[in-house]
Specification:
Number of strands: 25
Distance between the termini: 63 Å
Structural class: alpha/beta
Radius of gyration: 28 Å
Strand order of the largest sheet: 7-6-5-3-2-1-19-20
Largest sheet: 8 strands, mixed
Length: 560
């Protein structure tokens, strides 16, 4: 059932648990869900979405905090399913509004967040570490945590029990049967919860369109070995800074081939330092070195691990491709993009690949070698889980619209009635009562932008202005009119930026401006704001017809 109603939700009934997705439904990122029962709110995850090209000047995008900003005192905790940025990256911004919201998560997840709090200078954070099969009570919510396998260690699913029903949220997961850390998704716990009766199953949708089962992580080992065996000079590996399993495989391959590894980039150093300290990353003796030590090593003994697999402009790999980094990529180097392509990043990634190839590097990526496997369950695994859990209601989460729809179809195929499959958008309000989940309305839940000006101060209107400036250019017109007669006393002076043509082309529009102002004056228009709008309309019409552009037009009319 698609949620497209914009009606205001009714007052929550006492026998219902209310579920409101605040992010992550419709895009890959900023995952966050609010569960409310008897006036108390439990949050699951609080991630960020990285901006695309249509978000100029934006650093990060947060979930829809505005829905709960007036009720932060009712929040009893934030449950964090794992340590990826799209699930924990927004936590520091949430804690700026209320520092003492308790955070619940696994050891690694909370440790990764601790480093963020130092950066943001946030103190006094309340943390509660939990582990597999641990069961705790927070306010009206009875929480049980289940081990799931993902591309980062220590990931958890969470079962939330209230008198209104049992909600099972998978977090990000897959069913790798040969995981590198030997930590399997606990299907026995899923089955046990299914026997108890899961009223709402909130399921990771990322790979719902992909048939079969996700390739095991161990299969990458052979491909990685081949890359190292055929590399003549340096190997430069780009992956997410939190991908502990991938870095572990690089360390093992480097050790087997007699190479030294250096980590490049602040986030990579920070996260791998945490993982190593806690025992999640096992570094072979003598393999890991400081990047400065690479200058004294032959190229065929060097491996660099850096960020930038998504083409992020400020990441190390992008700067290498643009020759803006101390590490210069050259002929014979092998660059490996060890991650999947996040939708929306295609152009940025291809620019980096082309730049590196132009410098003489051999670029290995998922499209030409098995150097990455997904951390998300494919359709076969999702079907397996639906059949084990047998939920009364299903809500696909974590994915674009096509992923959510595909996941909903899988639920229906396993016997969940179509009317019990809730296909939501961010801000959709769902009430679960008496074993039935229903859409009861929606609340505004737009993007919250983070940029240099602050958090939430960037609006869609401002982004539109930035896009116009970037794509269409800028024209300013300065005119002085006589305050008594209304006639043009000086100007019009036209200046333009972002146009290929010479400014002299705008001389053709000056008589049109003068004529339009004269006609407006004859009609009794003297207000400078109204005269500015006259100028704007004339110039806009002329530029649209003459230059086929729609630039930002700033007219300035002064009465003197």
């Amino acid at each position: 059932m698609a949620a497209n109603s914009l009606r205001t939700p009714p007052t929550q009934q006492g026998n219902a648990v209310r579920v409101i997705p605040l992010g992550g439904l419709g895009d890959i990122g900023r995952n966050m869900t609010a569960l409310e029962y008897r006036g108390q709110i439990l949050l699951i995850d609080c991630g960020v979405l990285f901006p695309e090209e249509n978000h100029p000047g934006v650093d990060l995008i947060l979930p829809g905090f505005s829905v709960i900003e007036d009720r932060l005192d009712d929040v009893v905790a934030v449950v964090l399913t794992h340590g990826h940025e799209d699930h924990i990256g927004g936590v520091p911004y949430l804690l700026r509004q209320r520092t003492d919201i308790p955070l619940i998560g696994s050891k690694l997840t909370l440790a990764l967040l601790s480093e963020k709090f130092r950066e943001h200078q946030i103190r006094g954070v309340v943390r509660r570490e939990v582990s597999d099969l641990e069961r705790i009570t927070v306010g009206h919510f009875d929480l049980e945590f289940i081990a799931v396998n993902h591309s980062i260690p220590d990931a958890l699913a969470v079962a939330v029990r209230t008198p209104a029903g049992l909600v099972l949220h998978t977090g990000d997961f897959k069913m790798d049967q040969l995981p590198l850390d030997n930590r399997l998704t606990d299907l026995r716990a899923f089955a046990r919860l299914g026997e108890e009766g899961v009223d709402l199953f909130m399921v990771d949708s990322t790979n719902a369109e992909v048939p079969g089962f996700t390739t095991p992580e161990r299969d990458i080992g052979q491909a990685m070995d081949r890359v190292f065996a055929h590399a003549d000079r340096r190997v430069i590996m780009a992956c997410f800074s939190s991908h502990v399993h991938r870095v572990q495989q690089v360390l093992d391959a480097a050790d087997a081939h007699g190479r030294k590894v250096a980590l490049v980039g602040r986030s990579m150093l920070r996260n791998m330092g945490v993982a190593r300290e806690l025992g999640y990353l096992k570094v072979p003796d003598g393999v890991l070195v400081d990047v400065k030590a690479l200058d004294d090593l032959p190229d065929d003994q060097v491996v660099l691990v850096c960020t930038g697999s998504q083409g992020e402009p400020m990441a190390a790999l992008s700067r290498m491709a643009n020759r803006e980094h101390r590490i210069e990529v050259g002929e014979g180097d092998t660059v490996v993009l060890a991650s999947s392509l996040i939708p929306g990043n295609e152009n940025a990634v291809f620019r980096v690949i082309n730049g590196l190839t132009r410098l003489g590097a051999r670029v290995v990526h998922k499209g030409n070698a098995l150097v990455h496997v997904s951390g998300h369950a494919s359709a076969g695994e999702l079907l397996y889980c639906y059949n084990i859990v047998r939920p009364r209601n299903a809500m696909p989460v974590h994915g674009e619209v096509r992923h959510l729809v595909a996941n909903g179809d899988l639920a229906v195929a396993t016997g969940v009635p179509r009317e019990r499959v809730i296909r939501c958008d961010d801000g959709t309000v769902v009430d679960l009562a008496n074993g039935v989940a229903k859409v009861v309305g929606s609340v505004p839940c737009g993007f919250v932008y983070v940029d240099a000006s602050g958090v939430g101060e960037t609006t869609e209107e401002l982004l539109t202005d930035r896009r116009i400036l970037r794509d269409e250019g800028f024209i300013s017109i300065f005119v002085v009119v006589d305050s008594v007669t209304g006639k043009v006393a000086a100007g019009p002076t036209v200046q333009a930026r972002g146009f290929v043509v010479n400014d002299t082309v705008f001389e053709d529009v000056i008589p049109r401006i003068e004529q339009a102002l004269a006609e407006a004056t004859e009609q009794g228009v003297k207000d400078t704001y109204e005269l500015q709008q006259v100028v704007r309309r004339v110039v806009g019409k002329w530029v649209g017809g003459k230059l086929r552009r729609r630039p930002m037009i700033i007219p300035v009319v002064i009465a003197a």
